[in-house]
Amino acid sequence: MLKGRRIVLGVTGGIAAYKAAELVRELIRRGAEVRVVMTAHACEFVTPLTFETLSGHRVATDLFYRTGDYTMDHISLAEFAELVVITPATANVIGKLAAGIADDLLTTALLAMPAPVLICPAMNSHMYAHPAVQANLARLASFGYTILAPGTGELACRTTGQGRLPEIHEIAEEIESLLTVKDLTGERILVTAGPTREPFDPVRYISNHSSGKMGYALALMAKRRGAEVTLVSGPTALPAPQGVQVVQVQTALEMRAAVQDHFKKATVVIKAAAVADYRPVDCARQKMKKKDGALQMELVCNPDILAEICKNKGKRIVVGFAMESEDLLANAQKKLLAKGMDFIVANDLTEPGAGFNTDTNIIRILDRQGGTESFPLMDKLEVAGVILDRVNKMRTQEKRG
Ligand code: PMT
Hints:
This protein is of the alpha/beta class. It folds into two domains: 6-178, Flavin prenyltransferase-like (Rossmann fold), CATH 3.40.50.1950; 188-283 and 297-400, Rossmann fold (3-Layer(aba) Sandwich). The chain is built from 14 helices and 21 strands. Helix 1 crosses helix 9 and helix 5 packs across helix 8. The chain has an eight-stranded mixed beta sheet with strand order 12-11-8-13-16-17-19-20, with helices on both faces. The radius of gyration is 25 Å and the shape is elongated. The structure holds ligand PMT. Residues 194, 210-214, 252, 271-275, 277, 302, 304-306, 320-323, 335, 347, 355-357 line the site of ligand PMT.
């Protein structure tokens, strides 16, 4: 999602400088164009050649470097950047930036920089806790810089405490978030994701193949766009999306209780979970023993969570999904009208790249006015984007009256 975004990475002289090389790779993998500036101390830890090779561009290190075309690096970097990230940020550079000192290329470029700045401090835990460092960070925050607090754990100086550089995917996610337009600020979005598991003894259950990827993508995109997000998730192997409140559930009844709990404060509900329609009437206390012959099991219908919440929908925007393997549009239309949501996102399991456990999806959006919009194969994050665009459009139309 960083396709074509222009990022300047400032590397300063801490042991975590070697991890910045991994950040360059991650940003490029996400589609960004990266230019690297290194301080003299950073060059003691890692050579510019590493960053040149990874970024495919000259690494700027010297304030007085003559570019040959009469441009100045500190100005052209400021013009290039849509965002600057300093990884790792040492106590020294944090202090210099807080004081407005410009004694090398990075600190000078920062003074000329209109773009948002992300600071990722990494240092010994006592240094990080020192009142001078904390006061300088508070001052940088007051300039509008974003500070990504370091993690706690084992440090390179063989102590344990707060000072570890956050994980590379956490820094990349913060960058994604900073570069995303906050058009959903003020919305409280409740998303459901994943399967439910309906147990019939302590070791077995009825479930489905939902991986949770579609719902997690929706939660992450909504958070990036400024919404406050709660994700009610069935069991998945996915990490919790950064900045999202996650409520873990197992069964349809637990999902129903969690949705009802969080529904009251939600302004938007998006139900991407694949809820089991039936559950076993009984759950044996002990593991069921294998017997000869067929096994009969009585199932009872689970409550339809979506239909229930739509009865008290009020001004909330409610979005459902329809997962079909035949007659996609007709079946989706039936669900849209029967359950009472604002629009439904239909996906067909039989289409390659769509539905369960893929990183992509192919969707149609059907609305209550009879409109249908079809979308091509897209990454699930992009799919989440078009669904949230539709939510935003509805909200804007509603505000206009
Ligand atoms: O998780 P992934 O691997 O990324 O796969 C994504 C997905 C295929 C699960 C997702 O895109 C999707 O289609 N989710 C809805 C699956 C589903 O249960 O569809 P349905 O047609 O059976 O249900 C219709 C709607 O009613 C859904 O919004 C569902 O959440 C809701 N429902 C269904 C049954 C029930 N008891 N309560 C409900 O709220």
